[in-house]
Design brief:
- Strand 8 and strand 9 form a beta hairpin.
- It is built from nine helices and twelve strands.
- The chain is globular, with a radius of gyration of 26 Å.
- Helix content is 25%, strand content 19%.
- The protein is α/β, with parallel strands linked by helices and 303 residues long.
- Helix 3 crosses helix 4 and helix 5 crosses helix 8.
Length: 303
């Protein structure tokens, strides 16, 4: 349920504004459509086909992460097993928003979500279970203005969001947090409050590839309470002149969660283990090989 505060009654303090609710549906939910209904969408652009055929109105034309699908990647919350590795990723901002993501690494074991459904995620899959988008709000909506916190204040509030005794293995953060102007850096200030960080790998194009591959291959999931991730990631646009990167308009707007997630993915890159090809057996004996070498040295034909 969403309330539009701009349409509330100013004379009624209890009025939250006009309410709307989104009920997702696809053409498959309408039993009166015949089998040929979807065929008429065949000549339309892919993003329009997904909107009309699957009811996926989050898809954006020109989206960089066109592989992200809310039906597959947004999941119901579940209790994170204590033995799963947890870590944080941070994209820093002072006048602009910052973003913090909390991630858990699946070991492939089964979990039960809040609806009672048993699920299993691949070993090594990253699950985003909490987030903090540090920005000013207007009418309940995020803006592009930051909270202007110091590293000290940031760390204090960050720790306050966590559960008592929650064990975080490491924190990977925006390299800009190590900038100094004659005093302690923001990373140092955060360390003073108990959050020890390490610099993120800031390779942009390689990072976007790593993030894209994780989403596409089913190795990145997001709890449904991570609303800012769900809102911003599908809208990230690719750069027409540099398709391996996102467009500069994203960098000046809401790319903070994308950057933070890129740091998270680059802290745990997926590696492909190629099987070595078996050595073919020649059938030659030791004496055969010795004879071949002798013939070669004497200029005689090989056996």
């Amino acid at each position: 349920m969403h309330y539009d505060a701009s349409l509330r009654d100013p004379d009624d303090p209890d009025d939250k504004g006009w309410s709307t609710i989104y009920i997702p549906a696809s053409m498959r939910d309408n039993r009166f459509l015949d089998a040929g209904y979807a065929a008429q969408f065949g000549g339309l652009p892919d993003h329009i086909q997904r909107q009309l055929r699957d009811g996926d109105w989050n898809v954006v034309p020109g989206a960089f992460f066109d592989c992200f699908d809310g039906k597959d990647h947004v999941i119901k919350a579940f209790k994170i097993p204590l033995h799963w590795t947890r870590f944080r990723s941070v994209d820093w901002g002072h006048a602009t928003p910052f973003s913090v993501g909390w991630w858990a690494i699946s070991d492939g074991s089964r979990v039960v979500d809040r609806t009672g459904r048993t699920r299993q995620y691949p070993e090594g899959a990253m699950v985003r279970y909490r987030e903090w988008y540090g920005c000013e709000k207007r009418n309940g909506n995020a803006t592009t203005k930051g909270l202007r916190l110091s590293g000290t204040e940031f760390a204090q509030q960050c720790l306050a969001l966590e559960e008592p005794g929650e064990e975080i293995a490491y924190t990977v953060a925006d390299p800009s947090m190590w900038r100094t102007d004659g005093g302690p850096s923001q990373a140092e200030r955060a360390h003073g409050e108990g959050i020890l960080m390490r610099k993120a790998d800031n390779q942009r194009e390689l990072g976007w590839q790593e993030m894209y591959r994780r989403i596409k291959d089913g190795y990145l999931y997001v709890f449904e309470n991570c609303t800012e991730f769900i809102r911003t990631i599908p809208a990230i646009q690719s750069d027409d002149k540099k398709p391996e990167d996102i467009t500069s308009t994203n960098r000046g707007g809401e790319d903070h969660i994308a950057d933070e997630t890129r740091y998270a993915c680059m802290s745990r890159p997926r590696t492909s283990h190629k099987k070595e090809k078996p050595v073919k057996k020649t059938g030659w004996t030791f004496n055969d090989i010795m004879s071949m070498n002798a013939n070669k040295e004497q200029g005689r034909p090989r056996i």
